[in-house]
Amino acid sequence: MRTRTEEALRASEERWKFALEGSGDGVWDYNFQTHKVLSSRRYKEMYGLAEHDNEDVVTQWEKRIHPDDKICVMTDLRTYLDGDASSPFSAEYRMRCSDGSWKWILDRAVLVSRTADGKPLRMIGTHTDITERKLLQMKQLMMVLECSSEAVLLVNKEGFILFANDSAVRLFGYAQNELVGCSVDVLVPLKARPGHGSHLAAFMSNPKPRPMATAQQLFAVRKDGSEFSVEVSLSPIEIDNQVFVITGVLDITERKRLEREMQLAAMVYRAIGEAIMVADADNRIVAVNPSYTRLTGYTEQEAVGQSTKLLKSGRHTKDFYWRMWQSLEKTGHWQGEIWNQRKNGEAYLEWLVINTVYDDNGAVLRRIAMFSDVTDQKRAEQTIWQQANFDPLTGLPNRRMFHDRLEQEIKKAHRSALSLALLFLDLDRFKEINDTLGHAIGDLLLKEVAQRISGCVRDVDTVARLGGDEFTVILSEIDDFGSIARVAQGILRSLAGPFQLDGEILYESASIGITLYPDDAATLEELLKNADQAMYAAKHQGRNCYSYFTSSMQEAAHARMRLIADLRSAMAENQLLVYYQPIVELATGAIHKAEALIRWRHPVRGFIAPSEFIPVAEEVGMIVDIGDWVFREAIRQTASWRLSHDPVFQVSINKSPVQFLREDNSHGGWADYLKALGLPGQVIVIEITEGLLLETSKIVADKLLAFRDAGVQVALDDFGTGYSSLSYLKKFDIDYIKIDQSFISNLAPGSSDMALSEAIIVMAHKLGLKVIAEGVETAEQRDLLIAAGCDYGQGYWFSRPVPAEEFEKLL
Ligand code: C2E
Ligand code: MG
Ligand code: MG
User: Fold this and answer.
1) Ligand 1: residues within 6 Å at CB?
2) By residue range, what is the domain housing residue 434?
């Protein structure tokens, strides 16, 4: 019976074993009292055990558990057995096979019986080989880590690296096999290692996923020794009963740099003097800085959310904004000056720079506008520019601006193959008006003249004032040469009208010189010289007219230059002489007077007439020295004749207006010179021209009066050719008038010149003046003059001007 029961039992156990083994698991059966383990065939197969290994396997089992797993497994088992063991025991751990390899197994067991006093008696369990699954798990983990773009290290709790992905390899510069197996300390800079060790220990004692000391600045070091900022994240992972740390390492060098830049930018943004406005793609303001508020008057709260049109002044055309947007859309950039309006309504000029920030897809993200108020700066610039380029009195371009324009017009004319005309205009009586009526009236006159000239030209032409009473006109793009003369005539006509200035009515005229580009000259300098020469030609033609530049003018100008050069040496080289021409007392034929006339014996050209070189000497101022020389020479001669021949002998000396105005009396005037020589003033008569009397300056009047006070007489030369009025003659205390030879040469009984001469003589006598007739060439003329009561005669009839030695014979 027992046997049958046992057999039945054995049969049922066999079936059960068979069933378990059929599933591929190894089965074991352990008796706590005998310490004997029964194991199935499959069990032995799994570990490569021999049949007899059945004996005492519990020791073998314990021995074969992986040292890393053993404590864990034994602890778990103890806990299971000490508890009520209501549910099965389960553990995963590594077991060594007899060939030394390791297998991962899942050990599931149940306590099937206890002793009477509750001690464990029998336990049955299965081992499932889970090596494959474990490997797969690990592989999957590695794959996940490998794919991470972040550098990842798998570190065990001792701090050794078990795995490093490609990113980590790249980041640290080590090869994969160099990293695996070494301590993470290698990747920590020396100075940070102690801290790092305590971090790791702290983490391991309480492993929870967390970023590692994010607030703390962490550094890592590459193989090449270079350090860099990192952010480290730690995630614990339990693999096979062990805690590992998945360590993510992020290189934040660039981020740090950006952060620093951002900080800097933010600082600049707040501190910068320029206003900054940031707008989004829809042109809504998203940020403004304090300077923006200072400049526009809008606070941040007021501005943010508004359209960027907030500051629009309405001063610009639609077209202006359209172009701005064109540029912004095309290049993302615009800069320029723009009139905007502050909150208080005040318009101001700003220098604005707009830049665009795009997102990763190239769409507009932000527009950043930076601007500063340049109103004052602009105003100052404008004033400076205005002052530098325009004449403040007339508002016309000044010399500088004129030069610029002429330069440009020359270029333009050159390109377009058209001509341009340059007009040089000089007022005829400006100095006189300025001197008699004062500078205030002179200024008004210039202003009015400027307006009248401007009124005669087209908009494209340029009228400029070079200074004083000199104006220029550039007539550009000329295709009809007749138009030049028309403009010149128009200007003369418009100036001919009376000027009503501050209650005064006056008249003015101008002389205009005209030159053409490219016909007369190719450069600015030449054009100016030509126009100037032509203007002088117009003056010589009698003023109030215009004259074209001609090549003969050019030649004359050259000749003049030569003449000036020669004249400079003439005095030093004794080429100058003084001739004397007697002035005969008509009633008696006596000679007590003579006119001193200068002669220039040129070494090459022979005698050069005074009419040729005196005006030039006047123009360049040399007349002062020449005149002084003539004066001294004549005085010396006269003083000697007074002693030798005639004690009342008197010499007439010509004195040009230029001498009156230019000579400086630093070493005394002529009167002083006479006094110094002990000679009376009666030794000389000063011959002046009518023009001088028009010079109303005080200098002239003072000098004439000084002569009178010194007893020096004054003769008015070439009378009848100028504009002298009787009042002038009286005012300046003139002693003689010399009737111009143009009247004398035509003297005939009953002629108009006869009548005129007679009238002059009568009038002069009435005013207490004596009359000298010039250019008496015939006996008839002499007789007619005697009959008319003329006092003195001078002319070839009596004698030509002759050298002193010859003159002596006449005395
Ligand atoms: P002016 O003072 O009217 O001098 C008279 C001019 O008439 C002289 O010319 C003289 O030679 C000329 N003349 C005299 N009698 C006759 C005549 O019967 N027929 C003609 N056809 N001419 C006669 P000249 O010497 O050539 O001088 C010309 C001008 O040059 C002078 O005119 C005077 O204005 C100026 N001049 C001459 N010497 C001097 C000088 O030393 N200083 C200055 N500042 N001017 C001078
Ligand atoms: Mg004279
Ligand atoms: Mg004369």
Assistant:
1) 581, 597-598, 609-611, 614, 627, 630, 654-656, 687, 717-718, 741, 774-777, 794-796, 801
2) 390-547
